[in-house]
Amino acid sequence: METQNFKIASAKSNIDWTGRKVTGAHNGTISVKEGSLTLNNGQLTGGRFTIDTTSINILDITDPATNDQFAGHLASEDFFNSKQYPEAIFVITTSVPKGNGSYHINGDLTIKDLTHPVAFDAQIENAGDAITASGKIVIDRTKYGMKFRSGNFFKDLGDTLIYNEFELQVTITANAVAETALA
């Protein structure tokens, strides 16, 4: 069995996030700090990547003061608590090929030292010395202690309610790691 290891190219990888509330949605980006993917005989079999929670950007709010205030709130204890937990980690536990580069991925996502399973479909493009992986992960923020304005925990929120689920559209580029000869 031929095993290939790939190192994630952080500068060529990104995560687009979307959070929704009763009155609309917000979106932005968050950086992939580092990680790796493993292929056996050309099939994705494992991997992990680290998300830099201190890198959260908001794209839909153009007023600088409002944007800074919102970014600060997302970094606060109400949400990611980025000062105490600057990283979130995703680890692939199983990867099931579905054909044509499509996979069903199961993994463990750790945010704020809380780990829960997540599952999603991903598309993998293998160019031999580089691969690109993309998929949409839907996450219930309340499982990670992010209860701010959640209808599960607070009553009578009206139009200030924030939906529990948020989406991460993940796109990862990884380059083959050169195998070193054993001496």
TrEMBL record:
Pfam families: YceI. Residues 5-175 form the Lipid/polyisoprenoid-binding YceI-like domain. SMART domains: YceI. SUPFAM superfamilies: YceI-like (SSF101874). This is Polyisoprenoid-binding protein YceI. It comes from Mucilaginibacter lappiensis. The lineage of its organism: Bacteria, Pseudomonadati, Bacteroidota, Sphingobacteriia, Sphingobacteriales.
